[in-house]
Design a protein that fits this description.
mainly beta
Amino acid sequence: GFRFMNDGRHYTRLEQNQINKYDFTNGEMVSVLLDGASLSNKKGFRGRISRYSFSHDESLILISTQRESIYRRSSKAFFFVYNPGNGSLVPVKESDKVMYATFSPDGRYVAYVWDNDIYIFDASTLSTTRVTSDGAFNRIINGAADWVYEEEFSMSRAFEWSPDSRMLGFIRYNESLVPEFTMTMYHDDLYPEYRTFKYPKVGEDNAIVSAHIYNLEKNHLREVDLGDMTNMYLPRIKWTVTNDMVIFKMNRHQNHLQLFKVGQGNSAQLILDEKNEYYIDITDDITFLRNGNHFVWSSEKSGYNHLYLYDMDGKEVRALTKGSFDVTAFYGVDEKRNCIYYQAAANKPSERHVFAVGLDGGQTRLLTPGRGTHRVQFSSTFDYYADTHSTINTPPSYVVYENSGREIRVIEKNDVLKKNMEAYALSPVEFFEFKTSEDIPLKGWIIKPVDFDPQRQYPVFMHVYGGPNSQEVIDSWLGQNYWWFQLLAQNGYIVACVDNRGTGARGEAFRKMTYMNLGHYETIDQIEAARYLGALPYTDSSRIGIFGWSYGGYMSSLCILKGNDVFKAAIAVAPVTNWRWYDTIYTERYMRTEEENPNGYKDNSPVYFTDRLKGSYLLIHGMGDDNVHFQHSVEMMNALINSNKQFDNYMYPNRAHGIHGGKARLHLYTKMTNFILNNI
């Protein structure tokens, strides 16, 4: 919740329609920078402030109102430039909502996307320049990611300003050949609404992408020559401190990544070339140093994810981190102290700590001692940081530290919540480890009933996600599901979770061994985990159930089908039921296409094994799910019917992948709880 200011000591927050300024060291409010109520009906401003950002020198504030979500990360809104100095308010575009309005570094310009084209608003002259003119719905997108890039490359805005504010780099998506998908939405009208958007499923055409640079001074637009762009991705664009654009280019198999630097001409210089026998995950773990000669980059080339210093010719200068552990977050480069900050599972896979290490690869300094999970947010100058710390049995606490590690103040210890936990007589979550029949050590956690009696035999309820590089067995607060798991434990269930092969923080070999065979090893491991739990002296092996959502729903479906002699019941929420119906980027990263890997698809998609169902199966899906389409559950129903298998089904009209809005979540968890009580 901190938006740090340039001085590194103050931060701002949007609270009750006000942008308030605070002192980070003592938490005291310094001033109200903007009261949204004072803008009512001014220059067309209506409603409340949705979001805001500052110009680089903090002299102007870009505010949005009436924000409207589109997909997971995308949105559109009315944007205004507010000048705190004279109180002026200027609309970026008067007549309509726009996407991704962003200040240029000098604060003079605001670039945005409207109707799939890029525009630049000059806040000093109040004039607007149209950068592109070929944008068209479901055909051409300029400067905004298409659906699959937004979802699977975690990007939405597809343009970036150069540091000198003279150029705007962007990606153009030609999605004319991408097949369309239509969802049906119900709004109490005579006819439903049909929403159609481009969604490339496995093996289908992706958008044809290209990189472009617009020069504001010359009013000149050019396309960058990146060589052969057949079946290529452009998952990131960045700028160096010397105003060169850096473009990430990746092949469709996602195992060959190249970084190109683009100067004044159309040609691009290769500055990094990385290959992997499996795949390469795209991250933002890159920082160009102010000297213009080096950058920090993360890579799995050692078998673990680590940070490296490279020169601008793509030569490794040195490894900044090393060892048999994964770096799990990169917080940035502190050039004043000549070091970097990062989070890693250095002590054990189930913990996270934050470290500093010199750019010379010297001494490593631990910033967050003690067990559990630490996530930090540094001030803009790295002089201070806020540490969010929790364990699996302790809710988060928030503490401010100086860079030296000296504690400055406590923001929140969650003492009220801790007292409530005592009042509810909850059970501690315990970690355990076991070895499978293949001698693979797997880690898990378990919750036993409060009045646990080792002489009794309890039913077991397992929770699973299990997807690539995910991790559920971590010494960190479990959040919302914690309370549901405790409710089940109070109703006499043992609740457990095990991380299967393919999950994270145990090195590349462990997390990528499921390559080309998603679901195979994961299902074996979950079945073996159920057998292990069922063999404990205090469990009833005839009463084991499993629950998962999304990839977890895919896993719970496979488990009750392939493990029909182990699992009595399963709940699958928004599951993938056939990898053929999921998107190109995610699925092909791990499986390649069905044409290249027919057995991988056939052997591990639940729709092909419905004849094996013996236990109780609850299938749940949001009908407005733009991610894992309702199609997956409909086809699963068809397969179950064709196999003459009885099952339970709940569908949520208009709800997306998270099934939220109104009372949907309460309704969903009530249904799942009753299903567990009645079937396990």
